[in-house]
Amino acid sequence: MQTEKSETALDGAALHQALAIATAEEREDIMRETVRAQLADILAPTVVEDDSNFLENGLTSLTALELTRNLMTLTDVEIPLVAILEYPTPAQLGHYLAEAYAAVNSGDGATA
Q: Which of UniProt's keywords are assigned here (predicted)?
């Protein structure tokens, strides 16, 4: 049974609506905040800053899997688990997700 907090955090429809009307810069901000919120839920009570490293905050392989699964559910973007290592901060992963989301939703079938 999900809590009200987790239902709100996993509201993909609201996220898609916000992303649909956002500029590229706003989309990156939204994705960064989404990454931070998901990571904070997983690593609670850890405070996650934009430039804090996932692994230094205690992310394990199991919680990395949970993070990518949650983000894929929210964004409908395929996220390889290695992305957590390649983009190890909320700012970097948010940037990656914003570009991947734009590519997936551009209508040309391109992927990031």
A: Phosphopantetheine, Phosphoprotein
Sign of the alpha-carbon torsion through 50, 94, 74, 42: negative
Using CA atoms, how far apart are residues 47 and 39, in angstroms rounded to an integer? Answer: 9
Q: Is the distance from CB of 65 to CB of 81 less than 8 angstroms?
A: yes
Residues in Cβ contact with 12 at an 8 Å cutoff, skipping those fewer than 6 apart: 73, 74, 75, 76
Please write the tens of the pLDDT for every residue from 71-111: 999 999 999 989 999 999 999 999 999 999 999 888 654 44
The residue whose two tokens read 């955090």 is 9
Q: Global pTM?
A: 0.82
Please give the domain boundaries of the chain with CATH numbers for all domains: 4-104 (1.10.1200.10)
Residues contacting residue 9 through CB under 8 Å, at least 6 positions apart: 37, 38, 41, 70
Convert 83-98 to b/e letters by CB count within 10 Å (16 or more is b): bbeebbbbbbbbbbbb
